[in-house]
Each structure stands twice: as C-alpha cells, then as structure tokens.
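Good morning N.,

You mentioned wanting to compare the apo and holo forms, so I went ahead and generated the holo version with NDP. This is what I fed in:
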Amino acid sequence: MKAQPAASHFIDGAFVEDTAGAPIEVIYSATGEVIARLHEATPALIDRALAAAARAQAEWAAVRPVDRARILRRAADLIRDRAEELARLEALDTGKPIQETRVADWPSGADALEYFAGLAPTVTGETIPLGRDFIYTLREPLGVCVGIGAWNYPSQIACWKSAPALALGNAMVFKPSEVTPLGALKLAEIYAEAGLPAGLFNVVQGRGAVGATLVTDARVAKVSLTGSVPTGRKVYAAAAEGMRHVTMELGGKSPLIIFDDANLEDAVGAALMANFYSAGQVCSNGTRVFVQKGLKDAFLARVKARAQAIVMGDPLDDATQMGPLVSEPQLDKVMGYIEIAKREGARLVTGGARADLNTGYYVQPTVFADVTDEMTLAREEVFGPVMAVLDFDTEAEAIARANATEFGLAAGVFTADLTRAHRVISQLQAGTCWINAYNLTPVEGPFGGNKTSGVGRENGHAAVQHYTQVKSVYVGMGPVDASF
Ligand code: NDP
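and this is what came out, ligand included:
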C-alpha cells in the first residue's frame, strides 16, 4: 500500500522537497505499514512559504470577490469529481472507514469551498451618517493566515480553514499534523489546478516546532488552530505576543443529556454516533452521556446490542463501519483510559479491549455505565471509542453536572418536550448544541467552543469576522472646524 505524494511540501504553486528536514513516516493505522515518507520543513522552506504567501496575498486582495469565488467553486467541483480517489486517500491517511470518508471528510470540505465562494461577494461594509459628514466601513482581509491542523479530520480542517481565508482575500500557510500529512497536499494540488494563483495556499510539513515557528513570524496576521487544549494554550500565547488574530478549535468532554421521554432508538443512535464515529476521534463527541434513571436500563441494553453489532475491519472494505485509531500512541492512550476506568469502578457494559484483528490499532466499541463525575473518564478527553454513561434524576441536576467542566465545545439534549429542550440548551455552557440530534456540523452553522474549548468560530457567517478586519473611514464633507 503506497500513498507517496510528489514531494513533502507545496510552496508557491509547486511541490518542493528538502531532505535536510527530519523524516516523517506516514503509517497506515490498519496495518502499521509505512505508506509515505516525508520530511519536515526546514527554516529556509518555512521562510519561502511565508514570503510567497505575503507576495501573493497583496495581489489577491485586489481581485474582485466574484473572481476569487469562481476559483474556489472550480476546486469544489474537482473535489467532487475525484470523490472516490480522495475518500481512499483519506482512509489511508487516517484509518477511517471509506464509508465515512466518502460522505464526511472531503464532501464537507467541498461544501465549505462552495459556501464561502457564495458568501464572499456578499460581504460589504456599512455607511454611518453623521449629518454633514459620514463614516463608511470596509471589511478587509487580514493578510497571511497560518492554519494548523489536528489529525482526525485532516482534509476537512484544511478546507474549513482555507476556504474562508482565501474567499475573503487572505493567503494561507497550512501545517497539517505530521500524523496525517497527505490530505492538505492534495488540496494544494487541487487549488492549483482550479487556477488559484501561486503562493496563496502553501503546505509545510512538520511537528509542533514548525507550527511554533509559523505562529511567531512577523508576516503572519492570524493563526487558526485545531488541536488539543494544551497546544491551544501555547499557540494562543505565542500569537498574542504579536497581537495576532486567533481561532482556536480545541478539545471537549461534551454532555449528551437524554431524558426519560426521549425517543429511545433515536437517543441510542445519536449516542453511538457521538462516541464511535471516526472511532471516537471527534472533538465535539458527546462523551458524557447523561441518561435519566427511568430510561437507563432500556438505554444500556440497546446501546450494548447496537455497539456489539458494529463491523470493524479493513477501512477500505465497504462493509467496515469502524476502523482503527489513528496511531499507536493514540491506541496506548485510549487503552490507558480504559484501564483507569475499570480501576476507578466504572461498570464495563461492552468492549474494553483491543479488537482481535491481528493487525492495526483497533479498539472495540466500549461502553461504561455507572460513571460518576469524579472519575477520570468523566473529566478527561479520551479521543477514542469509549462511551461513559452517567445517570441523573432531575433536569436541574443534569444541567449543573453537564456544566461542571473546564470544556465547553458542544452539548446535546434528547427529549420529546421541546420547551424543556430549549430551556436546557439555554443553560448549557457550550458553543455548539443539538436538540434531538448530535454531531451534525453543516458548513452553514457556526462551529466552535466556549470556555477552554476555544475562541472564535469556524463556518457560517460568523467565520467572516474571523478572516477580515474592519476599516472605518471618516469622510469630512465641509470645512475643518479647528480649535487652534
Ligand atoms: P495537538 O494539539 O497535539 O496538535 C494539533 C496541531 O498543532 C498539530 O498539527 C501539532 O503538530 C501542532 N502543534 C503542536 N505543538 C505546537 C506548537 N507549540 N505550536 C504550533 N503548533 C503546534 O492535537 P492532535 O493533533 O493530537 O489532535 C487531537 C486534538 O484535537 C484533540 O484534543 C481534539 O479535541 C482536538 N480537536 C478539536 C477540534 C475542534 O474543532 N474543536 C476538531 C478536531 C480535533 P504535530 O501533531 O505534528 O505535533
């Protein structure tokens, strides 16, 4: 199995290699096989990428938004034309099953390109009358933006960051996670083919140090990171030094609250999707499933039956519903959390071990019941297929316990009582919420977190303010009234 790209980096419109950079092995997590060998970007390459971005952005900002949009739409068409090839590449890069990567990863990226292509030409300023004089405002691009991605949705993240950046007149230097470096390179190739001028979207590979170099460069106006909270703290602090704009999409430990009157099969389906899609490696997952006591036994019985029916196997097999974790370190981390949960007294309902497939970093879909708020499983982000079920009596109790966390990325409520649904949601401290649904993140809706889960929003109209800045222009229409 090979997925070797033409070179490690894409800078100023072309693939670039410099073997002086530290090696990166790309591992197919279903087998442990090396599918590509890349190199980290050297300081000289990072400098080239930033210089190209700065040069190209100055020209791009002067391009009419409808003309920028046409290129993004062409890129979206290319993504859709190559859907199968891209779904396969994403499965190799991440280990996610192809039945997911066909519908979620690149398709959601293409949606972002289409959405921001449509939105950008509608972005206007305002005119503020002052009697004789007036002020008008312009929404201008920020300049060179740095995108840094996590490994769980490499292509979607690259698209979600670059689409609004480019549509609104910025340039981007993107650093994927070194665990999943392939998708962003493919995106760079597609943008070039769609006619994006050289230098506007550059990809440099590397570990955290490459990201850190990008974040502190004087040419950079904005940093958008998708990653963990500890990395977010470091990147936010480094960006603050230069007063750079930031968007931080970080981790979570999100509550999914299921009331007695909820439709059982819908609630079970949502809880399964909220914990086992992408083998549980989704930042907004509802990993604290609060189930009201009257529904608890029925809920656990159905969750157990449906979790045990999940088909694990080769990600490239159409029948596979759940693949391996992304890497061996992630496997070790998740197995460590499962052991801690057992030790701390959570009741194992199903799973709890590596899946016996003789290969790869597979973990069984795992459900723990009788989890309490103090247990590690209820407090820390596992990022694997591990569902924690907690039970509760009253609405007020569920809300208070759901909010008792430093995170605030997402939250969900299942109930037939819509008045209660809105009442509960209005009190939950989370940036992205669902009622009788979970983890649906169409590009039309703003996405992001509160508390330590993040700053700013991706997608929706909200993203416009995170990739533009307001210029306010006072126009004097008469004689200057000077005091001196
Ligand atoms: P990390 O925080 O480890 O890394 C995120 C990215 O930041 C990687 O590209 C990483 O490089 C880079 N990086 C690490 N250190 C620095 C630094 N000092 N300066 C600049 N860049 C740096 O996250 P993971 O890749 O492990 O992804 C999993 C995490 O991402 C989870 O916690 C999850 O919740 C979160 N996430 C959040 C989402 C959201 O939208 N809120 C969506 C998806 C994931 P490298 O990996 O090469 O070291």
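Residues 184 and 477 are 50 Å apart (CA to CA).

Happy to go through it together on a call whenever suits you.

Best,
F.
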